[in-house]
Amino acid sequence: MKKILILNGPNLNLLGTREPSVYGQATLADILDGLRHRFDSRALLTDYQSNHEGDLIDAIQAFDGDGIVLNAGAYTHTSLALADAIAAVGTPVVEVHISNTAAREEIRRRSLIAPVCLGSIAGFGADSYRLGVESLLAL
Hints:
The chain is of the alpha/beta class.
């Protein structure tokens, strides 16, 4: 069974109440519960969320598993440090976003982490996470 980390960055703890027209009404707990239910027999899912960049870097560096599904939130567009951590560990990372970042504000159209990730999935709502897990299971 593959071990996969679902890693979430800043403000994702507010899912369900934060801009539901953009991010939907599902809470982070709802999304994680759905993933665990769906992949219970195929993957051991662990999760972590932090609003602090260094905590996310520590989680990437400490993870000893098969892959990471990462929604870095706004750090996607600003954090060279996260990109460096992903590149340093060699663990496959799939970047996910609930909203279609390419259709949003100019700053959100550029990902600093995409070049060091296995792939990027955006715009499918909470289902972006499922697609991220499935892509790692297919490796």
